[in-house]
């Protein structure tokens, strides 16, 4: 089992080198199976994650990264990490359809940064009923706001097809 995992990691690394891609590199994230695993769950050696940059909108300096992780059930989990924020600040965030801009259809709200993860005031984790594949193959963007979604946007980043991403 370990030898197979090592071989898969080597093949993924070689494939990334051969393809010459700097924005996409794929590796396996080993998550051991549990007794509760079912036929509906993904094999633990095929769990995926992708990261997308979030960039400040002037005059804000807030930016960060949105990591989309595949759960063992194949659903999407969003991990939002902000930079250039101040401890104690609250930031609402949401994923919308289309490209960064106003008046887009809401896909999902994300947990608010600053009060949703007590151990790290710059991170939020949101579990969804969206599939991982639908998110990374869709055309979406994440928008960061002040403490509520109806405030002026502070940062934005593309998510899904066409966005700069790194696969793990």
Structure commentary:
With 168 residues, the chain is mainly β. The protein has a single domain (23-29, 43-167), classed as Superoxide dismutase, copper/zinc binding domain (Immunoglobulin-like, Sandwich). Helices cover 14% and strands 38% of the residues. The chain contains 2 helices and 9 strands; from the N terminus they run αββββββαβββ. The chain has helices at residues 2-19, 132-136; strands spanning 49-56, 63-70, 75-83, 91-97, 106-113, 123-131, 139-144, 155-160, 165-167. Strands 1, 2, 3, 4, 5, 6, 7, 8 and 9 form a 9-stranded antiparallel β-sheet that branches. The longest helix has 18 residues, at 2-19. The protein is globular, with a radius of gyration of 17 Å. The two termini are 20 Å apart. Residues 1-31 have low confidence and may be disordered.
Summarize the structure.
By secondary structure, the protein is mainly beta. It has helices spanning 2-19, 132-136, and strands at residues 49-56, 63-70, 75-83, 91-97, 106-113, 123-131, 139-144, 155-160, 165-167.
Tell me which CATH architecture applies here. Sandwich
- Estimate what percentage of residues fall within beta strands: 35-45%
Helix/sheet category: mainly beta
The CATH H-level homologous superfamily: Superoxide dismutase, copper/zinc binding domain
Q: How many beta-strand segments?
A: 9
Instruction: Give me the Rg, rounded.
Output: 17 Å
Order of helices and strands, N to C?
Answer: HEEEEEEHEEE
Helix run count: 2
Q: What is the total number of structural domains? A: 1
Q: How much is the average pLDDT?
A: 79
What separation lies between the terminal Cα atoms?
20 Å
